[in-house]
Each structure stands twice: as C-alpha cells, then as structure tokens.
C-alpha cells in the first residue's frame, strides 16, 4: 500500500484535488491489495468560510479531510509557518510515501517545505507557471515549491519551457503532453531515470473538472433564477489578488477601469471575503450596474460563466475557464501566467484593452486533453522509482 498525502487549504485546491480523488477511487477499485493507494487528505484551514471551503466538499462529494489543521488567516510568515509546523507533525505521524501539493498558495509552500525536510518526495500539481512578478506571493510560492519538488506536473507547454530555462533537465516525453498511451506502456526513455526531479506535461487538472462539471452545473445550479438573470445580458467579475486589492490605489484603478469601459452594464461580482468591506464602501466607483454577491459554488460559477457575455478577472483559474467556455476575458492585471490565452486572442490584459471582442476561436488545445489524473498513475509508478 502506498500512502499519498494531499495538502489542500484554499478554494482552488479543493477543485484541483477532486479529479485526483476520483482517479484514486477508480484506481483502487481495479487494483490488487498491495498496490492500493491510501489517500490521506490534509486541509490546512487557510480558507474557512463555508462559501470558501465546505461548499466545495459538499458539491463534489469529497470525503471529509483526514486532518484539519485550522491555521486560519494571518500574515504570510505566520500563515506559512503554521502550515509548515502543523503539516510536519502530520507527516511525522503518518509517514506518507509522497506528498502532493497544488497550485501556488501558502498552503502549497508550507506543505512542500515540511515534506521535503523530512525527505518525503513532493509532487507539485500546476508546476512551472511564472508571472515574473516577484511582488506576488504566489510567484514566490511557485518558484520555491518547484525547486524542492521531485515530480513537477505542468499544466501546459509554457510551464515546461519555464522550467527548462530554470535548469531542470529531466523531461518526461520530451515535455510534450503525456497521453495515457505513453503512460500505459511506460516507454519513455527518461522514465526510469528519477535521480533528478522529473518534469511531466500532464495538461491542466482544471480542464478535467471543467469538462466534468459543466454538464452537471446545467442541471444542479439555480443561480440564474436566484439572481433573476433572465435576460442573460451581463458580465462576470472576480477580483481578490493581494496586489490588486491591498493597496487602495490599485483597487480603485481597477474599479475605474470598469467604470470607464462598462458604465451602466450589468456585472455580477461574487466577492471574496478579503475585500467584502472594501467593495461595499467603494461600490459606486465601479459605475457599472454592479450586483455584489457572496462567493458562489463551482457549479454556480460555471453557470454564470456559461451564461455571461464576458469575464473580468484577476483569478488564474477563471482566465482558463473563460477560454474553455469560449467567453472573451479581460485580465485585471499587468501580466499573467496563462500567456497562451493572451497570444490566442481569447484573453486581454487590462493595460491593452480596447473593447470586448467576440471570442477568438481557437482549437482549444492549450491545456491538455482533460485526462490529467494520469498524474496519479505517474506518482505511483514513481514511488517505486523513488525507492519506496
Ligand atoms: C489565496 C491565495 C491565492 C488564491 C486565493 C484563492 C496565497 C498567498 N494566496 O488568497 O493565490 O488565488 O487564495 O481564493 O495563498 N478570508 C476570509 N475567509 C476565508 C478565507 C480568507 O475571510 O475563508 C479573508 C481573511 O481576512 C484573510 C484574507 O481573506 O486574511 C486572505 O486570505 P488568504 O488565504 O491569506 O489569501 P487569499 O487572498 O484567499
């Protein structure tokens, strides 16, 4: 039996864990006893409001976390430090064979650091992304986590190329998307060489979730009715990044951008708790016919996305979801990690914005084939190679 310990704590991580959780269940059904994977889930408690955490467990039918560390909010040092010490205690107790971390949050970094210092191999889902803006906490978390990981699961070719430039040398399938066939045969010439960290282009787990959930959302979500969005003529806005909201000047710059370009337009804004008060206080600065609502569930968000005319966001996940749903997107930042969405014309940075255009059709192949839970299989194969 292999012990695979997943560290989650912030909203997008519950979503990214879901396809791996399902893949584990399917894998275990087909697998003989000794190869079964024990899935151990650790929730750091970075996000704790119902709408930021439990709602995703309920909606996706995820199991209750095996450990809940309840770290809550705090400065970056305090939050990351608490995650580090508390995950360390869990790892010492359960002795996992591999620790899987997701994305770029303080939860990602804290969990990865605790594991690597105990000589437990770390697998990083969503490795290799860079904004090249070191003032973003997420950029520091990404760079550090990548450089202490043994398995780096990249969502796209851009991420693979970033890691190449940073000196990584061991690329599974030469950094090309790692399809299920290659995995089954295991015939890649580098596959057995795990003396150095291995970079694997798996595609984006969020695409898997998107494909799965978009069908269910149509049936289960009643958000359009609840918000009385009958005429289907609205934009969807999300904004929560520290660099855009902590500094009031940056926050107001974005509000005024919306005022200048979308005056009078109906805009639905599910507000992250970190900026709830601020948004209420400066609501009129947005100019638009803005509807402020609580954070929504994943199915509700997809329903809003599928129905809206355009997306305004500083979220990484929503930029890609807009691309998959074929909705034009304006990213409320000066740079993005998802550069191909910009190059393809489907996404525009705020600084380059002129007007909302029709969605620029492309062949939708930037982020994999929707079968990323291969990650699980690779992790298991590599446990053997890692000498476990
Ligand atoms: C975190 C991630 C960010 C990710 C985002 C997704 C880091 C550094 N940032 O940002 O990359 O895009 O999650 O949502 O890890 N709060 C609540 N209730 C909650 C959670 C947070 O009220 O359930 C408030 C608290 O005041 C807290 C603040 O939001 O201090 C910030 O939360 P934190 O988890 O530190 O970062 P996020 O802004 O959510």
Describe this structure in words.
- With 388 residues, the chain is of the alpha/beta class.
- The protein has two domains: 2-204 and 368-386, Rossmann fold, CATH 3.40.50.2000; 211-352, 3-Layer(aba) Sandwich (Rossmann fold).
- 43% of the residues lie in helices and 15% in strands.
- The protein has 16 helices and 14 strands.
- It has helices at 11-30, 54-60, 76-94, 106-117, 137-147, 157-165, 180-185, 205-220, 223-226, 242-245, 248-262, 276-281, 298-307, 316-324, 339-343, 374-385, and strands spanning 2-8, 37-43, 67-68, 98-102, 122-125, 151-154, 170-171, 198-201, 235-238, 266-270, 289-293, 310-313, 329-331, 347-349.
- The strands form two sheets. Strands 3-2-1-4-5-6-8-7 form an eight-stranded parallel sheet, with helices on both faces. A six-stranded parallel sheet has the order 11-10-9-12-13-14.
- Helix 15 links the parallel strand 13 and strand 14.
- The chain is globular, with a radius of gyration of 20 Å.
- It starts with a strand and ends with a helix.
- Residues 184-194 and 383-388 have low confidence and may be disordered.
- The structure holds uridine-diphosphate-N-acetylglucosamine (UD1).
- Uridine-diphosphate-N-acetylglucosamine binds next to helix 1 and helix 5.
């Amino acid at each position: 039996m292999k012990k695979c310990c997943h560290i989650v704590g912030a909203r997008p991580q519950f979503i990214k864990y879901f396809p791996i959780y399902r893949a584990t269940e399917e894998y275990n059904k087909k697998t003989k006893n000794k190869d079964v994977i024990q899935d151990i889930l650790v929730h750091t408690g970075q996000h704790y409001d119902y709408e930021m955490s439990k709602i995703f467990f309920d909606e996706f039918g995820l199991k209750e976390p095996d450990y809940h560390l309840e770290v809550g909010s705090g400065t970056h040092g305090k939050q990351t430090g608490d995650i580090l010490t508390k995950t360390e205690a869990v790892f010492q107790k359960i002795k996992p064979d591999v620790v899987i971390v997701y994305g770029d949050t303080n939860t990602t970094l804290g969990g990865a650091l605790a594991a690597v210092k105990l000589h437990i191999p770390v697998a990083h889902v969503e490795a290799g992304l860079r904004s090249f803006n070191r003032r973003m906490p997420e950029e520091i978390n990404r760079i550090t986590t990548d450089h202490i990981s043994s398995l780096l699961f990249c969502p796209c070719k851009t991420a693979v190329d970033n890691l190449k430039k940073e000196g990584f040398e061991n690329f599974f399938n030469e950094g090309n998307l790692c399809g299920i066939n290659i995995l089954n045969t295991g015939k890649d010439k580098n596959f057995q060489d795990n003396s150095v960290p291995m970079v694997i282009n798996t595609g984006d787990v969020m695409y898997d979730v998107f494909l799965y959930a978009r069908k269910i959302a149509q049936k289960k979500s009643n958000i359009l009715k609840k918000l009385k969005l009958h005429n289907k003529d609205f934009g969807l806005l999300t904004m929560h990044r520290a660099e855009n909201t902590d500094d009031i000047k940056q926050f107001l710059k974005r509000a005024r951008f919306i005022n200048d370009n979308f005056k009078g337009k109906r805009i639905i804004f599910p507000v992250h708790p970190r900026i709830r008060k601020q948004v209420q206080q400066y609501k009129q600065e947005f100019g638009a016919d803005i509807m402020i609502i609580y954070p929504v569930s994943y199915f509700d968000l997809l329903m809003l996305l599928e129905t809206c005319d355009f997306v305004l966001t500083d979220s990484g996940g929503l930029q890609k979801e807009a691309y998959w749903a074929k909705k034009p997107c304006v990213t409320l930042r000066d740079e993005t990690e998802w550069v191909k969405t910009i190059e393809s014309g489907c996404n525009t940075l705020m600084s380059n914005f002129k007007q909302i255009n029709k969605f620029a059709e492309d062949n939708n192949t930037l982020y994999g084939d929707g079968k990323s839970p291969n990650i699980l299989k690779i992790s298991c194969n590599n446990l053997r190679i890692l000498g476990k």
